[in-house]
Amino acid sequence: MKVEDFDYPLDESLIAQTPILKRDTSRLLVLNRKNGDITHKKFYDIIDFLQKGDVLVLNDTKVIPARLIGEKEETKAVIEVLLLKDLGENIWSALSKPAKRIKEGTIVSFGDGLLKAKCVKVLDDGIRYFKLIYNGILMEILDKLGTMPLPPYIHEQLKDQDRYQTVYAKNIGSAAAPTAGLHFTKELLEKIKDKGVEVLFITLHVGLGTFRPVMVSDIKEHKMHSEYYSMEKEVALKLNKAKQEGRRIIAVGTTSTRTLEAIMTKYHEFKECSGTTDIFIYPGYEFKAIDGLITNFHLPKSTLVMLVSAFAKKEYILNAYMVAQKEKYRFFSFGDAMLII
Questions:
Q1: Structural domain boundaries enclosing 128
Q2: Where in the chain does DSSP place strands (E)?
Q3: pLDDT digit string (tens) for 216-245?
Q4: Residue 208: pLDDT above 80?
Q5: 287, 295, 281: which is closest to 340 by C-alpha?
Q6: Based on the domain organization, do 253 and 292 belong to the same domain?
Q7: Verdict on whether the full-model pTM lies above 0.70
Q8: Residue 140 shares a structural domain with residue 170
């Protein structure tokens, strides 16, 4: 299976540069995965497609304001560091730019020395391990010095940093937002619960894979980067009960999907657990956990297009993307949504 099979022509003017004013007024393309039928709605209409007894699973990860602009102590050269993962003992993996300027021992200073990062290991692809040096609480310092790590296709400045967080974001640790969840308001979630839909939360911290294109021609040769996930005991029990009773489990986003499928693949049931997953879902994969998926429109040739093409037929997905462009839907992180059911 070739990466080119998941390409599609994209009108770049449709890439959303800013969030819509009110989260749940974004548009919603509903795709019937059995026959490819398409319906056009608003996101707040999602409630009409949910039934009493359904389980909605959301990713409650919280994005770190992890993009830092500093300077090399020796030369004052401007350096950008994007923190990706806390490895423990104040050592973080990070993307650095320009990476060639960062050697082992290089110190980058941020905010007049409020935070310093000393390179302790050089890896491929611009990745470095940094030892962070600071006084106080790191997250408070990052709130002061850092900005949200927006994807490279977004060129506008984000005026309200909270718009790159879901309204239910809780567990700090992501290098990118689980963007399907950005459409929900607290009021909409309450209405969904009032309808008799169970709303549950799992955690997957979005990592490096979000920033990396597929560089091989045969997708089976692509290696996913691993990401941390966790599921609480009460959530596992409720999900198992829903499965046993034949109730639908609907994942909000590809991150929730990957977490649910990774746990089900590993344990053949849902269970209280945490760990890392590098699960790569593409056509041919047999879904074990989910019955529906709420997601955004994804980049051509990306692993996320491959995942949704595994859940619905690739032909249905690519057709839906063409229809969405004709209808002037907004694409990617701050764009509109799809419900595949």
A1: 67-145
A2: 27-31, 38-42, 55-59, 61-63, 67-72, 78-88, 91-97, 107-110, 115-122, 127-134, 171-174, 198-204, 227-231, 249-252, 273-277, 292-296, 337-340
A3: 999 999 989 889 999 999 999 999 999 999
A4: no
A5: 295
A6: yes
A7: yes
A8: no
